[in-house]
Every structure is written in structure tokens, then in C-alpha cells.
């Protein structure tokens, strides 16, 4: 029989033609758990605002793999030793870094599951696939967990300047059409080097890093935390909360069996560790399960679930007010009074699905995390916050906190 050609070429809209550099990576891509990422949107509900933002975690993983190839080639050209086995492993690690994302990516991360991150679930998936592939992922898992001897390989997968961020900023900018997020990922990668087992950026790349950090901050406010997308995401969360309340109270509710499990249980890390079936249920769950269920719930006898579901499906979203100061208590009371009267609600618990306030916070650069180091002549190493003449530590590391209030439209 002819040998299957696994070194495929993929036509990616962001980078053009990209290669699958190792046969083993093709086997990973073909694994059912990885193919599931085709059905998980990269940007949650952001397509509600930017119609082109329909790309998936599958596309992002392939893009990050492509950038990893460029990074490995660059570091090797500068004399850094990366063996073929290490190259394959670090490619596998970045390919699988987001495999643990649930439906709509970050949106339902603390709603369907509890006290477990998508990184933890990614590790469970990697360990499961490793069994299927007779331990071939041992080194990739070691790199992913930052236990491998060459620490800079982990930084390529997970740091403040990793291939994950370099791809998602450029890809999310491309598909959303928000050009402020476009970064020079090629130049940034060409400026990478390793010093004392840590990734560094050559001094002449400092302006590209400044642009990268500014672009990340702009993308958060224009795309990731756009107020309309935030409204849609909060409505989706409220629908899940209402559905869980009904299911746990004994009400009949249409949902695929794997999704229904997470409405009944909301498992945490102990359940994932103690019962292999939990990961199996999770591996079967994607955006399609959520959307098909919500469409069915638009005619559910429960008035609250039906109202929320129909509004969500028809894009009749909450109005959302975002401010830099806490929402005045009398403003919240005023809105609650109107909603109680308009919707005929009977309790504070029912009202909580329609009126709620919370906060959002971001920072472009976490000074407590893996820092971005700039290398000057004579091997002088400076943190980007010290090396930049445009951005200072207070601006880069400052957490911006905003307050928001959600409620139904039409109350004026």
C-alpha cells in the first residue's frame, strides 16, 4: 500500500500556504479531540458585533503551529540548539495548547465547569492523546508543564510573547476587520533569541514589541470586551444558569446528553481527575450543542428561560452601561423596579437574570508574569517596561477596571 503523505500544505487566509512539518503533527490534527476545535469559535460571541469573526480554535492552533516553525528556524539560525525531537515536541505543545477550550471559548469557562481552567483541561486531553499514541507526547507535555530542561521552549508556548498571542492578535484582527490589532509577528519572531535559557528580544525589535503591547490593549477594548459582545456573552451565561436551575429542580429540558451532564453537575478538577467519563463528555461538547439547545428552549414552558433564549437567538440583547466609576445603587434600584413591573417577576432570584452589575479588568502587560526582556549590546538585559522610551511601567502594568450594568432594552 502507498504511504500516506502527512506533510500537508494548508491554505491559511492569514499567512498563505503553511506546512505541517512533522508526520506526527498530522496524526494529532486528525485526532477526534482536536477536530472538535473546528466547532469552537475563537472569539465567543464577538461575531455578534463583527460578522467576520467566525474563525475557530482549530484555525488558531494551526496558525500558532506555523509561527512556531518560524521561531524554531530563527533560533536555530542564531546558534541555539533545538533537536528534531524537541522541535516536534514544541510544535505538538503549541498545537494542543488550546484543546481544552469549551463551547464559545472563554465565555462559559466558569459556567459549565468549576475551579478548573482550560489549560488544565488541555493537559488532560494531552495525556489522553498521549495514551492513544504510545507516549509520543511525553516531551510535549513536559514542555507544556514547564518541566523540560530548556525553559525557553515553554516560553514559546506560554508567556507574554508566545506563539499563541502572536497568532491570535493577528488572526483576530484579520477576521474582525479591526486593523488596530495588526502586529508584525514576522519581525517579532526574527528578533527573538535565547540568553541564559530565557527568550529575549534583540534591541532593534523594541518598537515591534511596543506596537504589540499597544495592539493587545486596543484589541481588548475594541474586540474582546466590546460592550455589545459582552452583553451577548452575559446573556448566554444567564441562559446557562437558568437552564441549570431548572434541570437541578427536576424540570425536563432538551439538550444533548453530554451537554446535559454539565448542566446537572458543573464538575471541577477533582471530577476530571477521578472519572475519565467527564473528559469524554467534555470532548463531545461544542458550540453546536449550545445553540441547538437554546433554539429549543425558546418555546420552553419556563417564561424566564424562553424569554432569554428567544432574545439571544434574535439578537435582542441587553442594554449595557459601562463606566469607570461604580454604578450608583439608586440607578440599579431604579432599573430593577422597572423590570419587575415590566416582566412580572416574583423574586430577587428571578430578577437577577435580567438586571445585574459587575466589573471587567485588563492590563496589557503583567509585571508579575514572565516578563519580556530586551537584549542590548554587551548582553545588557532590560525589561520592556524599563527599555521603552514610549511606555513606562505604570502604563504597561496598570490594571484598567471598569464597571457595567446590564438590563433589558425598552425601559426608557
Commentary on this structure:
The chain is an alpha+beta fold and 412 residues long. It has 2 domains: 9-225 and 367-396, Hypothetical protein af1432, CATH 1.10.3210.10; 227-361, Up-down Bundle (Growth Hormone, Chain: A), CATH 1.20.1250.30. It has helices at residues 23-30, 32-35, 57-77, 84-95, 118-132, 138-144, 151-157, 163-176, 185-190, 206-224, 227-248, 257-265, 269-274, 276-283, 287-297, 303-313, 329-343, 348-351, 384-387, 393-397, and strands at 9-12, 16-19, 192-195, 198-202, 319-323, 356-362, 373-375, 381-383, 400-407. The strands form 3 sheets. The chain has a 4-stranded mixed β-sheet with strand order 3-4-7-8. The chain has a 3-stranded antiparallel β-sheet with strand order 5-9-6, with helices on both faces. A two-stranded antiparallel ribbon has the order 1-2. Helix 3 packs across helix 8. The longest helix has 22 residues, at 227-248. The N and C termini lie far apart (72 Å).
